[in-house]
Amino acid sequence: MDRFSVFSSRLVTKSENFTSGHRACQGCAEALAVRHVMKALGRDTIVAMSTGCMEIISSPLPLTAWKVPWIHNAFENSSAVISGCESGMKAMMRKGRIPQKKINFVAMGGDGATADIGIGPLSGALERGHDMVYICYDNEAYMNTGIQRSSSTPYGASTTTSPAGKVSIGQHTQKKNMPQIAVAHDIPYVATACPSFPFDLIEKVKRAAEMPGGAYVHILSVCPTGWRIQPEDAIKYGRLAIDSCVFPLYEVINGKYRISYTPYKKLTVAEYLKGQGRFRHLTDKDIEKIQAKVDSDYLKILKRCEEDA
Amino acid sequence: MAKPMEQIKWQELEVGSVVVEVGNAKEYETGTWRSEKPVVNKEQCIKCGVCWLFCPDGCIVKAPEGHFEADLTYCKGCGICAKECPVGCITMISEEE
Amino acid sequence: MAKVRKGIEVSIAMADAVAQANVDVIGAYPITPQTHIVEHLSEIVANAELDAEFVPVDSEHSAMSVCCGSAAVGARTFTSTSSQGLALMAEIFYIAAAMRLPIVMALANRSLSSPLSIWNDHTDTMMVRDAGWIHLFVENGQESYDNIFTAFRIAEDEDVMLPVAVNFDGFILTHMIEPIEYEDNDTIAKYLPAFKMKNTLHPDNPVSMGCFGMPEIYTEAQMQREDAIRRAYPTIIKAWKEWGDLTGRYYHPVETYRSEDAEYCIVTMGSYGETAMEVVDSLREEGEKVGVVKIRLWRPFPLDEFRKAVLGKKSLIVLDRAISFGGPGGPVASELRSALYNKEGAPVIVNYVAGLAGRDVSRNDFRNIILEGKARAGKGDTEGFTLYGLRG
User: Fold this and answer.
1) What's the distance, Cα to Cα, between the start and end of chain C in Å?
2) pLDDT tens figures, C313-352
3) Which letter does DSSP use for residue C357 in this model?
4) Tens of pLDDT along A172-185?
5) CATH code given to domain A6-308
6) What residues of chain A lie within 8 A of the CB of B21, using their CB?
7) Do C74 and A88 touch (CB under 8 A)?
């Protein structure tokens, strides 16, 4: 807790546009991320959300945990739906059918909705340049349907469709790098964040919303259920992911890279993997391999940041 | 208060099953899920709000005396507040105690 | 301003109608044979003849998704598709109706792959028959133009709030140049009031749309849709009546031609109606007591009007433009058999499936179908369906 001024929480708005009474699992850091995101966005926001954990837990008819206008349509299309909201509002405001107002248009989805089934609509929306923010809550598997692997599941993780076994290490592919894919769209703003670093997250979401045009924020969201850890450790594992540089916090503003946080002491990948049930089967040799990949990926990011400094 | 869903007649649904009473999820008391509850040592609490910041359920409230405590109507007992409290003033105790 | 009569491609006239309807958002993705509509709309928008957002999306799935988003904020919304495009957006097509979003679609009917075919039949639209959309079928260019306006009027009526598909035959209509009477903008403004929706997505009055339904509430949500589409019926009648009063062109859910004294009728949907009428004229000259029944409103299905039109006839020859594989007949014939089951004076039904993927059905073919169908009805040979013109 010596990493940031603990009294700063007073600077964060008290308003909760994502209310208590939602049905996320105990210790769900994804729900926490939503809470932080909604604090950053404020009331003048329209949210389009993909099918997934956050949609199910927040909107069982006739109840809703949302205090801002919110729409769920399907799994893969929140970015297309928000494109429609933005376009409709833009046309109606221009034509004087409704009063002018600055509204944040925000699409949200999990890693499956973002990196797998919805990557086409997302790419289309970013390419078309809608004034919108896309937020990916990455808990590294299809948790809503029961912890199946996605293309965002990290190498070596055991899931219900990438189980570790006699001839399987679990997930045998590398995690798809969604932030880099977003960067490739030449949008004004891309960032990574994690609710274990709430001030950083809130700042980034605010910046994303203020930036005209498309913005993408990729939030690592620890899932105690799917990662097979204790609920109380959800914040800790987010911190470990970042301190071990498995998930570096950075932003790309108009194409310029900037690292947001450098660990005081870079932890080993083993320190992050240890204790997570999904990595329980990994051997020291496997972990070495993962360490090498994390190191090289992190160096790449650092190099980009140095070049752009 | 929203009617319980098993009592809602089809005529009572809004067009498109839209929900107009926003934030009414608060009617659902997730506190019933809990097996352990957080107990705050008020003297030890430095009133920093870290527990409030990290609560996934947004159920930590500031008591009139200035310290923070969980609203047990919603607290699911995850234990994040106890784990993250910088001074260790929150303890998880069994509901039965 | 006054009416103007133009010789114009039907797709262009439909696009012009969309512009006259002053839409706010067009979600567009190219697919043959509807492409000319969105091409022309993009020109209209590019030339500032219509103030709207033209959203050129990444797929038809996204087209319908964009339409859902824009309709949900209360914007007047149009899209157009065909065939594979409709298949790809089918998921969201259902959701649009469930969320009661009054989108209007020009659905240029086309066959479905495979083999890949770009030509006309009704396979695409039959796939989404049960989605909860209102389905209109038109027969010619004028009807295509007119029913863009009636579609918006019906969709956006506060008692309805359902999406409407204007079905028109690919190529046979989309690429045909016809004389079409344009209404002036004042007439359109009089007919089509500004779109107002009770619950829209806006921060000043937040709502949640598309919430999750447990088994305890799903049935009620579906009944609400069923009720809406049933109650849409009088609104449709009224919308068509008022359009007729303004323009002189009246439309009805079931339309008949020389059927009053007919002993048997041919039943069609879409552009084949015109050929059917011509053939019936010539058969009448030969003394055949034959008429035409055209179904213009497919959903909600006009049960009473249909029964009124056909009860007492000896037989119906139903021309389907799609197959229901392994089923009891073409989708239209199956529906009509069901509509007449156990009804006193119900005609027997002989079912032909013809004109798949644009295969020409000439006047002579119509004549064959009608006469052969009549003979088969007389023999009681009425089971299943016949693929007309099949080799082998």
Assistant:
1) 58
2) 999 999 999 999 999 999 999 999 999 999 999 999 999 9
3) G
4) 999 999 999 999 99
5) 3.40.50.970
6) 62, 64
7) yes
